[in-house]
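Long-time lurker, first post. I've been practising inverse folding by hand and with some scripts of my own, and I keep getting stuck on stretches where the structure tokens seem ambiguous. Below is the full token string for one chain I'm working on. Before anyone asks, I'm not after the true native sequence, just a reasonable design that respects the backbone. If someone could post their per-position residues I'd love to compare against what I wrote down in my notebook.
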């Protein structure tokens, strides 16, 4: 059953504006919100090392499910500062990271010296910049959880389209938004003291797209049934649904293989 849509879901131009603002303020913490790292406290080397370890575990899992899988060209969707893109570059002949935020793409490029790794900005709700069958792997972590379901459904079909036959997909999508997000303290309450201040705070929190100066990460989920259906329709067979190392039990990693071409999207 598709989840009900919410008219407050951010549109892509709002998502871009918010991630650009986050990238200017505290980019590494915006990507990995580890306690104690807020306020530009990530040591850059420590930040990138997390990606090397994470990708090594993920590639090992792919190898277990699809031994000898092709390692020609990987796509990292929602690459941010390139934490995982650079790490993928150690396992693939070529890796491309794409991100909606131009500031994130610039930052990723500035911190990468690997010639086989490239970064590009994509602000569109599709991947038309890539031809069918371009990649051996489409990979995405802690990104689709920030994108409204109406876009994620479309991206899932695009991920399969840009995979070569037999290519693999490994993407993380929460099944449910964790309780307490948005934090309870930010729901409507009797504080601050005046009604005007309360309404102002409520509107700022719930309609973040209207206030670019106060960036906010929105959180979204897609049901397991819907993801499985979208992947099947797009022409992929699901090899496993694992629990993600990011977040709680409701956060899933779908690993799938392209088995046929799905119906193409009207651009
Ligand atoms: C939490 S960061 C994760 C970065 C990276 N995957 C990592 O784990 O290090 C989420 C990234 O997704 C990007 N993003 C959000 N919506 C996007 C979209 N529609 N297309 C591409 N990138 C997007 C944001 O700009 C941000 O850089």
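-- Answer (accepted) --
I ran through it position by position. Result:
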């Amino acid at each position: 059953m598709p989840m009900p849509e919410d008219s407050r879901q951010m549109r892509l131009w709002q998502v871009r504006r918010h991630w650009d603002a986050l990238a200017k303020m505290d980019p590494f913490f915006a990507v990995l919100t580890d306690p104690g790292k807020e306020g530009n406290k990530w040591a850059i080397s420590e930040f990138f090392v997390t990606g090397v370890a994470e990708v090594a575990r993920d590639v090992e899992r792919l190898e277990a499910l699809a031994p000898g899988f092709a390692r020609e060209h990987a796509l990292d969707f929602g690459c941010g500062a390139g934490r995982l893109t650079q790490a993928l570059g150690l396992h693939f002949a070529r890796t491309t990271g794409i991100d909606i935020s131009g500031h994130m793409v610039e930052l990723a490029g500035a911190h990468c010296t690997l010639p086989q790794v490239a970064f590009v900005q994509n602000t569109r709700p599709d991947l038309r910049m890539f031809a069918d069958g371009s990649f051996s792997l489409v990979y995405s972590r802690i990104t689709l959880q920030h994108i409204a379901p109406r876009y994620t459904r479309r991206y899932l079909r695009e991920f399969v389209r840009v995979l070569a036959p037999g290519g693999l997909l490994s993407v993380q999508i929460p099944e449910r938004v964790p309780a307490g997000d948005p934090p309870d303290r930010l729901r409507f309450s009797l504080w601050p003291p005046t009604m005007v201040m309360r309404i102002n705070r409520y509107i700022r929190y719930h309609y973040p797209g209207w206030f670019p100066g106060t960036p906010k990460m929105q959180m979204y989920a897609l049901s397991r049934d819907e993801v499985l259906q979208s992947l099947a329709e797009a022409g992929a067979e699901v090899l496993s649904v694992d629990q993600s190392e990011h977040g709680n039990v409701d956060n899933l990693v779908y690993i799938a293989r392209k088995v046929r071409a799905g119906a193409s999207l009207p651009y």
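A couple of notes from the structure itself: The mean pLDDT is 88. The domain at 12-179+217-258 is CATH 3.40.50.150 (Rossmann fold). Happy to go over any region you disagree with.
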